[in-house]
Structure formats: C-alpha cells, structure tokens
Amino acid sequence: MLEQVIVQQLRRIVGIQNFRDDRESLVVHSYDGTPMLQSLPDGVIYPESTQQVSDIMKVLAAHRIPVVSRGSGSNLCGGTVPIQGGVVMVMHRMNTILEVDQENLTATVQPGIITAEFISHIESIGLFYPPDPSSMRISTIGGNIAECSGGLRGLKYGTTKDYVIGLEAVLANGDIMRTGGKLMKDVAGYDLTKLLVGSEGTLAIITEATLKLIPPPKSKKTMLAMYKDLYGAARTVSRIIESKIIPATLEFMDNPTIRVVDDFAKLGLPRDMEAILLIEQDGDSEAVERDMERIQEICKLEMADLVEIAESREEAEKLLTARRSAFTALARLRPTTILEDATVPRSKIAEMVLRINEIARKYNVMIATFGHAGDGNLHPTAATDARNLDEVHRVEQAFEEIFEAAIELGGTITGEHGVGMVKAPYLEWKIGKPGIAMMRGIKHAFDPHNLLNPGKIFAKETRKRVVITRG
Amino acid sequence: MANANQPTFPSKPNVKLSNPTAQKLHLKLDYDQLTNCMRCGFCLPACPTFRETGLEQESPRGRIALMKAVVDGIMEPDQPFQDQMSHCLGCRACEPACPADVKYGQLIEQARDAIEEHAEHSIPVNGLRKVLLKEMFPHQGRMKWLGRSLAFYQKSGLRKVAKGTGMMRLFPKHLREMEQILPSATGKGVVERMGTVYPAKGEAIARVALFRGCIMDVLFADTNVNTVKLLSEAGFEVVIPDEQVCCGALHAHSGELDSAKALARTNLSVFKEAGVDYIVSNAGGCGALLVEYDHLLHEDNEYHSLAKWFAPRVMDISKLLIDHGRLPAFADSSASTEDPITITYQDSCHLRNVMKSASAPRQLMRQVANVQFVEMKEADRCCGSAGIYNVTQPKMAGEILEHKMEHANRTDARYLLSSNPGCLLQMKLGVAKHGDSSRMEVMHIVDFLYERLLETK
Ligand SMILES: Cc1cc2nc3c(=O)[nH]c(=O)nc-3n(C[C@H](O)[C@H](O)[C@H](O)COP(=O)(O)OP(=O)(O)OC[C@H]3O[C@@H](n4cnc5c(N)ncnc54)[C@H](O)[C@@H]3O)c2cc1C
Ligand code: SF4
Ligand code: SF4
Q1: CB of B160 sitting under 6 A from ligand 2
Q2: CA dist., res. A418 & res. A411, Å (int)
Q3: Of B337 and B137, the one with more pLDDT
Q4: Rounded to an integer, what distance in angstroms lies between the CA atom of residue A297 and that of residue A291?
Q5: At which of B96, B116, B136 does a domain end?
Q6: What domain range is A204 assigned to?
Q7: Is A463 part of a structural domain of the chain?
Q8: Cα–Cα 20 to 30 A to A111, which of A34, A201, A261, B373?
Q9: Do residue B65 and residue A31 have CB atoms under 8 angstroms apart?
Q10: Contact by Cβ (8 Å): B223, B183
C-alpha cells in the first residue's frame, strides 16, 4: 500500500482514473507471460506523456518507490513481475506514431504502440520494418526495445537493436535524456542508444524511439525440406551460409515437435523425420529464383528426404502452417508451457538439439525444440503442469543443464527473451564475474537507488533457480 | 514421457475460503482451464472491452487471472470483481485467438453461475431478468402471448399514446431507444403459418429440423418463414417440431445454468423424436449453445449421450446451404452488373467464434448477381449486443456500437446483413443513432437471399 499523500501526488499528475490501487488492478498486474510467477504491485499508473513520466519518476524517486515499466506483459523472463512491489507503469496510452520521415526513412513512435499495428502502418506506405517477434500482435515497441526482441527475419535483417537509432528516455531521477537521432552515423560519445536496447526496464523508461526503416523486398519464395538425419539438416544450414546465401528465414523443428504438430494440425507429416527446415528467401525475383535453386541443390546434396517449393502464396502459407502451429500445438499439450531460448553458434545446432533430447530423457520430461536455425536461436519448450511440483522441479533441472550445454558449445542462456528473473541466476555463467561487476556498475550509474525494475537481471545468488509458486 | 505418470498432486489449491461466493467459485470454476491460461496475452487484441478501455482487468487474460486469484485465495470476489465478470460481452472472440485453447466461454459461465447464487441485482434489472429468463423465454406459449401483446401495442396506437403521454420516459434511455427500433412483433410464429412439415423442392437431399428461436419467432417470424422456404428451394425437407423450447443461451450466459440445462433436455428429446439429419439454426446465438449441449450436459448421465448425438448435427443455415444444399441462383433485379448494389456483413460473434462459420455467409453473399460485397473493417468484432448486454451494460455497449457504426458507415452499403436477432436489433439501433436509415437497411442474410431468389417462389 502506498501512503495516501503519495497517491495524491501521483493522481495530481495523471488524473484520478489513471492511477489505480484497487485489488483488481493489482492482481492483473502481478504477472506476465512467464509461467509460475506472481507478485502484487502497490499501484498501477498510466501516463500519457513524457512529461508525466518525468513527474511521476520525481515523486517515486523522492519516496524511493520501485517502478516496473510495462508494455503488454508478454515477456517470458518475469520482466514485468513487480517482485519488490512498487508501481507498475503501463505504457499503452503512449501509443502514437509521431512521424514517418520518408526522406530519411525513419519513424518516430511512442513506446506503447503495438508492434503489429506499427508494422502494418509502415507497410501500408510501402516501407519495411523487419523485427517481427511471434508475439507482435500483442507486444509493444517499447517492450521489443527493452528486450531487444528478434523474429523470424532476424538472420538476414537483424533484430530490434539494428533498427533503433534514437531514443528519448526518462531517468530514475526524472531527468529526460535524448540519445542518437535520425542519423545513420553518430559517434558522439558512448552509444547510449544501444545500451538502452535490451536493458529490460532496469536503466531508464523509454518514452520515444526513432526507428530505421528500409525498402521492402520485391518478391519472396518459400520452401520446406525434411530430413531423417539431424546432421543433414544442420549441415544444410551451414552450407547455405557458406555458399554466401543469407535466407530471410531459416526455421527448424525437431522430431518431438513434428510429432506434436502432426497430432494437432493433422498435416500428415512423416513422423520419422528428425528435422524439418522451413526456408524463405526474399529480394529481387531473379536473385530469389537463383538462391532457391541453389538451396534446393544443397538440401538434396545433404540427403533431404523431401523438398517442396511453394509455387504460389497460398502454397507458401500451407508450408508455413507446420512451423506456425509449433507453439500452439505444444501449448495445448499440457497446462503449463515453458518456452526458453538457449542460443548456440549455428554450426552447433545438431549437437545442441541432441543434447536437449538427451537431457529431456534423463529427467523424464517432455521437451520439444523448434526455432530459428539460421541464427542458432533454439526454443526448447517444456510441456508440463505447474501443479505437479515434482515434475516442475525436474523441468527446472533439465533447463539448468540445457543452459550449461549451450554455454559449453559457445552459446548463450538467452537469445531474445531477456534475463529478467528467470535467467538471472545463470547470467554469471555466461558473462563471468567481471561481466557482472561491470553491468552492476552501469546499473548503479543509471539508477543509484535501484528503483527501476529491481530484482531483474542481477540475482542474489547465482545458479539456484527462483520460483515462486502459486501464480 | 512424464504425462504417462498418474497425477499425484492436487488439481485445485487447498485453501480455506471464508467468503461464500469464493467457495462457490472454488467449487464451480474448472481449475484445469484456469491453469491452461499461460498469460501470453494473445487474446488481448481480440477483446472488445479491452480495446475500448485499454485496461488489463477488462481483458480475457485479466478476467481469468481474477478468477484464479479468487480460487487461490489471493482476492475476495468483491463487487468490482463481480462487475468485471458482467462487463464481459461473452462474445468469445478470445477463444479462436488463444494458442492454448483455453475454454474462456465455459469459465465465464461458471463464474457467473457461482456469483448468481449470491447475487443481489438492482431492483429494475432483477425484475427484468426474472421476468425474461424465468417467466418468458422458457415458455413458447408465453412468448407468443408477448408477441401478440407487443404487436397489439405497436399496431393499436397504444405506442403513440405511450409516446405522447411521455410514459416511455419512465424507462431508461437505452430501453426507450431500443423500443423505437423494435420490428413489428407477431403472435403468429412459423408453425402457425407453415405447419410442422414443409416438403423439399425436388428430390430431398436430407431431412432437417428448424430451430425457430423464441425471439426470432416473435420479432423475426418472417425470417423463419423465409428460412424454411429457402431450405426447401435448396433441396431440404423441413420439419418444425412445435414442442421445441428456448435454447437456454441467455440463461447460460447470465449464470442460470440449471434453467439452461432443463431447457436443453427438453429440446434434446424433441429433436431426437423428429428423426432428422440436421438441426438448422438461423440465429448464431442460439446455434452456439445448441452445438455445446454436449458440454452443457457433460455431467448428466441420462442425457449426455443424446447430447453427443445432437451437437454435431446442429448447423447454421449458411453453412448447411453451402456444404450440402443445391444452391439456387440469386440476383438483385434492381441493379445490374455495371451498377451493382453494395452490401456488407456484421458477423454474429457466436456464429463466428463458436460455430466457426465465418466463410459460409460470405460465400453466399458473393454468389448474388448484381451485388457487390464489401467487407467492413472489424466485421469480426462484437457489436455490443451480446444477448442482453446492451440492456445490462448500456454504457460499454453504446461505446462499442458507436465504433462499429463508424466502420459500417464507411462501407456506404445499401444493406447491412447479419445472422442473429440480437445483432440485427443492435445494428438497427446503430443505424438509427449513428447512421442514415434512409440509405442503409439492416437485414437478416436469409431475408436478403430469399428476396433475391431468381426462379419461382
Ligand atoms: C507466445 C510468445 C511468443 C513470443 N515470441 C517472441 C519472439 O519470437 N521473439 C522475441 O524476441 N520475443 C518473443 N516473445 C517475448 C515477448 O513477447 C517480447 O519480449 C516482447 O518484446 C515483449 O513486449 P511487451 O510489450 O509485452 O513487453 P513487456 O512484457 O510488458 O515488458 C518487457 C520488458 O520491457 C520493459 N519495458 C516495457 N516497456 C518499456 C519502456 N517503455 N521503457 C523501458 N522498459 C520497458 C519491461 O520493464 C520488461 O522488462 C514471445 C512471447 C510469447 C508469450
Ligand atoms: S490467449 Fe489464451 S493462454 Fe494466452 S492469455 Fe489469453 S486465454 Fe490465456
Ligand atoms: S468473451 Fe469477448 S468480451 Fe469477454 S473476454 Fe472474451 S473477447 Fe473479451
């Protein structure tokens, strides 16, 4: 509970309606897309301008009250669970596209805009903003920036960080800072723009972003290849890249995923396949044709059992169904779905998938893996039941080993979902003690009183996984 | 794999709840479904109340979290909680959007059922609810009486008297507005006009039973008649069992599950008796409950197998025509290929989200010659009618309707079609309040098609 004087100060800034501390509001801001986490805030606030954010921060800083910035709460790392209480700041009302600059090919937006709405507006004027997380129909651009989200087009076009060129952000003391701009080059001091990208709401509150746009590709082609040999699929991926072809999409599903998808979508997929690759290329139509032919040759060379190229957009949609159903099919299998994003160098994909399958067997849990093969970003997904504490414990042990395996293979504990609470205990495994010390130093410089999304990224203890039951 | 192991853990939390409503919710809510929600938020953009308010508690994810919090003992089911449960339109647009297949419709019905047992409604709402749900809808005879009385009121000049004397001002504004757009009622339903059996034209493809619907048969009896004739044209023999009763949808959605079940049992016996291949509905709201009779009665040992026979045989008229009918040719004689008339369509939420019939009506409309079908933006979003929602939650319903009409007006359609009485009434209200009734006419898709049948009638 916040003191009444503080509540009054906050309400004076945003209006009575836009600060809430009734029980309903607190309960529905106690969670995000992460399974099994829940913690109630003390209040929820809905600012509508940078100035309001700044004024709010001044009040909160004066009283040392934590603040958790929140887009749509779709993150998978506990990023918006207010683990230390305080105020949840919902950015949805700041959802305007402030400008699309066709001369400089940039867009300036407020952070609360829904990613898909932004993308469809940009496409309607003939331009292209590539970062397309699967959650884009619900996620906000602010959330994408704070998590540095990636998507299916990441291999060729990069992720959110490659498109953020300027930011306006409110600092912990309420100061308003501007970084970067409509500039393709800018080396004026440290790159604070990139530092804020992926900072998970722990360094500042982003209130405006300038994003880079590019011209859209002229054509696109889709193809599906199936393999009885996992290594064949993995070698295909490496060979494509070796041949200096960068496909727009290079997605992967393993055998457990294929089975689950086939049960769910009744697509008649061959259940004895060890891997399916979904490959898309875009660009000028001649180049696309040439690349696709070459990719097809490579698939055959690597003993793909079946290669299908879509001749029309409808056929392409059909080929895409299998990959698109992967998450849905897994989500329906059991009540609780835990989606991780361990990432390895792409040359190590086959090895990583085999390790995951082995680990799942060892702990007797159901884990299926799909993901972005092109950039080594895998989604080992566990289907379990939060109420079965024994099984959940085994799932946690399995994931711990999976993280270990990823790091051993030169990879990372998270490729795009962020550290948040869930992976905080493992961060040190990846970046070591000096890395942690440096990051803590940065955090302290930005937020000396630890008010911005406290309890995230940095764990009290390394390794033991934090789980709060009931949720 | 671990799911081969038998679960040895409690499926519901073991908490002591002192509040009686909380206990009821603990008892009635399906905790598996509550757990199935993984809070991904994919349902948020589909939800009209979330889009209208931008508040998480007005979203499916938020409502599920609230229900779960009560069962978990984190929160009391206080008045704001109960209000939140009634804010939901029950349109179920959240279900097709959900990757985890959470049965939201069942959860909200269970929640309302639990709340209803302890509910204290305001006196006017309570009166209206009770009269409608308990005394009127379950009794087709009384519905006919209502139809006759309403018809008398509308035709006799009493309506004018009522308006002239200002009597109508005694009713809240939204009810007065509703009264004005009500179509002419009748006490003569489809059976009185056509008998209980109507032959197929040509060789019969199948024998089907018409579910006439209690509101349909009083306010849209002509549509019922046209439905039967259209079915006959398309090669179906139609029976209309006169003993059929209200589907129970309004009861189920308002937390009166026991009444809904009783009505379902009667209908099951009646339609089994009729010996038909399909049961046809021309009202999305009714059809959606009929296809879920198997779920509604899943704990009823006696009737569950009958319900399992029944549910898959329920079909919306559009889908039956497209999938199995001999489609006659349709054309608009007032227009031409060069100068077609424009039509648009508002989905009935339950037809789309529960009966999964979104494409059949569109295919039909595209077959009419000299007619251009224009898709209106967000046609798949609820219009705010939602059963008796526009009576119980007028403010939210009004805001949703206003947005809906902005999109409808932009199509500049001559006809705005729909497939459910509630939607038709709401859209009529919309055109009257935010549109131009001299330029846009609201019509049931069946009436539109029947009037444009090319050959004999
Ligand atoms: C089914 C599913 C699929 C997903 N697929 C992908 C995928 O393909 N790729 C991917 O990268 N991610 C994916 N995600 C994860 C998630 O959707 C992304 O991380 C997304 O960017 C979160 O956006 P949001 O608006 O929901 O942010 P939230 O979850 O609300 O917040 C995420 C983080 O951003 C911070 N934040 C939010 N707004 C601001 C702001 N204005 N200023 C500062 N900090 C802020 C929060 O404090 C929090 O730490 C998926 C999630 C789900 C549930
Ligand atoms: S889409 Fe389904 S699982 Fe996701 S939040 Fe909504 S109800 Fe829950
Ligand atoms: S039924 Fe409709 S109003 Fe209710 S939560 Fe679902 S989408 Fe929202």
Answers
A1: no
A2: 14
A3: B337
A4: 10
A5: B116
A6: 97-212
A7: no
A8: A34
A9: yes
A10: no
Establish if B139 belongs to a structural domain. Answer: yes
Q: A365, B9: Cβ pair inside 8 Å?
A: no
Nearest Cα residue in chain B from A114: B45
| Same-domain check for residues B144 and B85 | no
Distance in Å, alpha carbon of B69 to nearest chain A alpha carbon = 7
Residue A306 tokens read as 């079946």
- Measured CA to CA, the distance from residue B386 to residue B92 in angstroms comes to 10
Classified as helix, coil or strand, A337 is strand
pLDDT, one tens digit per residue, over B320-343 is: 999 999 999 999 989 888 999 999
Find the angle CA(B333)-CA(B361)-CA(B44) to the nearest 5 degrees.
135
In a domain, B311, yes or no: no
Average pLDDT over residues B123-148: 66
Domain boundary among B116, B138, B167: B116
Distance A123 CA to ligand 2 centre (A): 28
Kindly write down the DSSP assignment for every residue of A254-287, as one continuous string.
Answer: EHHHHHHHHHHH-----TT-SEEEEEEEEESHHH
> Are A138 and A159 in a shared domain?
yes
Distance CA A76, CA A55 (A): 30
Residue B255, domain member (yes or no): no
pLDDT at B421: 86
Task: Specify if B370 maps to a domain.
Answer: yes
Closest to B9 (Cβ–Cβ): which among A92, A332, A389?
Answer: A389
CATH number at residue B56: 1.10.1060.10
Residue B79 in contact with partner chain A when CB distance is under 8 A: no
Residues B108 and B146 in one domain: no
Q: What is the pTM of this model?
A: 0.88
Query: Looking at the domain assignment, is residue A426 inside a domain?
Result: yes
Residue linked to tokens 């070698």? A235
Angle between helices A349-362 and A389-408 (to 10 degrees): 150
Average pLDDT over residues A265-278: 89
Q: Do B54 and A92 touch (CB under 8 A)?
A: yes
B249 band by pLDDT with thresholds 50, 70 and 90: confident
Q: Does residue A140 have its Cβ closer than 6 Å to ligand 1?
A: yes
pLDDT in tens, A319-361: 888 888 888 889 999 999 999 999 999 889 999 999 999 999 9
Q: Residue B130 is part of which domain span?
A: 123-181
CA dihedral A285, A311, A266, B363 (to 10 degrees): 110
Q: How far apart are CA B167 and CA B162, in angstroms?
A: 5
Strands A249-254 and A19-20: unpaired
- What tens digit of pLDDT does each residue of A442-464 get? 999 999 999 999 999 999 877 74
One domain, residues A191 and A297: no
Question: Choosing among B37, B55, B66, B84, which should be mutated to test the A contact, i.e. which has the most A CBs within 10 A?
Answer: B55
Tell me if A23 and B65 make a contact (CB, 8 A cut-off): no
- CATH code of the domain containing A123: 3.30.465.10
Length of chain B: 457
Residue A311 belongs to a domain with what CATH number? 3.30.70.3450
